[in-house]
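Q: Predict the bound structure with NAP.
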Amino acid sequence: MRTKIEDQQAGNDSGTDERADPSRRGFIKTAVVAAAGAGAAGLLRPSSVEAASGPAKKRYGDGPYTAEGMALYSSAGPHKVMKFQRRALGPKDVAIQLHFCGVCHSDIHHGREHWRKEPFPLIMGHELAGIVVAVGSSVSKFKPGSRVGVGCMVNSCRHCGPCEAGMEQYCENGNVFTYGSKDRDGSMTQGGYSTFNVVDEDFVIEIPEVIDLADAGPMMCAGITVYSPLRRWSVGPGRRVGVVGLGGLGHMAVKIAMGAEVTVLTTSSAKVEDARSFGAKTVIVNAPGADLTKFKRSLDFILDTAPYQHDLERIIPLLKLDATLCMVGAGKISEPHQIGPFSLLRNRNSFASSQIGGIRETQELVGFCALHGIRPKITKIPKEKIDDAWTKIVDKAARYRFVIDMAAA
Ligand code: NAP
Ligand code: ZN
Ligand code: ZN
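A: Predicted complex:
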């Protein structure tokens, strides 16, 4: 069987056996309820910066706003400064001064046109974090001074089944992505490698004060992309989860892990100690030719975060009976993964996939990280170093998420 990444979403209804275990459901529920409760006590409360009134409004007005970003003008790069305008505030819009933006491997896939032809010039970045500086007339959740994040989506239809269920990432009418999508005014969305953005409040995430804004960025994509499937497949205490690829997503998966025992599969022997420090009990260096037979049938769930085509035939035998391999890594369209005819049937395994997470769920993930002290391991860079960071990411040399600091020079 030859499968393409875009056909891999079908596994969403599998794995029901793993969802039935009440002890794991209990763990998750407790954590989430606790996070929500803590919110009432301040964890999830928006920043206490004074509401403001006049000065912020006066300074920023209602737009349109001049912004500056690091754009690619072709897939060959490099990034160059681009001045452009963000739209004027609509009634439900918030204007955000961006302070940080994480660098995701998806930015590289887009920038290098691994997935499609891109609408250059294009500013990437979908792990935004910043401070609200002005709000539209009907905004209710935020005020100037609120600490906020924005992830991969900035709008969706709001009325289809998935949208109503809080899964805007699966909007049947197509959501608006943070960059490279046609916005509702017909313009092209531009991402977070920039100084400023204007976003509908329904797609903006509150960042509690206990979380540094620099750490919040990577939660907006890397964090939610691993949290959502870990929850969907009820990973939790008493279960063994495998994480393939210790990068931006992978290291967050190890840290989040929902109380399960973690096995990391890495191609980088230099990352073994880090994997353990993030919480992995077992670390397998998945080098070409390495013998993995002693790990056969040892895992209840595998979350595969590795980009690009890699050998799934080595990984699938590690699944127990009825267990699921969920692929969140997304390689080149031209190089789909291959799964042989007998690979899944031997242990009645499922092959699944998952795309980021909904807005409510992202807010929940932020609360979960606040409650459990989970933070990404980041390296801050000035915007001039984006090309260098992309090279390091592809070389597996990131430790473990580059975050652009808009104020750094
Ligand atoms: P990353 O920081 O580069 O981490 C990926 C890790 O995978 C690397 O550190 C490396 O870990 C391993 N790896 C890299 N190249 C590999 C290869 N050719 N073969 C096997 N392993 C390889 O990337 P990321 O930002 O975490 O993103 C990972 C993937 O997830 C990307 O494809 C990205 O587009 C995708 N993504 C998907 C979603 C979604 O909604 N499904 C959301 C965000 C990102 P080791 O050194 O440990 O082997
Ligand atoms: Zn991403
Ligand atoms: Zn929708």
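A: The pocket of NAP (ligand 1) is lined by residues 104-106, 109, 221-222, 225, 245-250, 266-268, 271, 305-308, 310, 328-330, 354-356, 393, 396, 398 (CB under 6 Å).
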